[in-house]
Amino acid sequence: MRHRTVQDIAAKLLSAAAEGATKSNLMYKSFLSYGQLMKYIDMCIENDLLAFDSQNRLFRTTEKGRLFLGAYQKLKELAPMSWPGQKRSNLLAHGAF
User: Fold this and answer.
1) What is the pLDDT of residue 3?
2) How would you label 53-81 residue by residue, b for 16+ Cβ within 10 Å and e otherwise?
3) What is the pTM of this model?
């Protein structure tokens, strides 16, 4: 797996929480260890991108989080990046974008 930015990981986490998710769901869908997950959950909650529904015990992406995901997708479309020596089409084929 390629090196992921904070934004890549946050986007994966927010996408996983779009319909509501437990910590375990988020951990598996975002490919994070428990310790890493907790740091990213804290960061997303502090930035009002993620909320915890204590009644259902699920994390959910907030409206601001959905706006972040939209901006993230738009940025990937406008400025696709690739590693030196890799073709963009090769990256797309492997799900990097």
Assistant:
1) 84
2) eeeeebbbbbeebeebbeebeeeeeeeee
3) 0.78
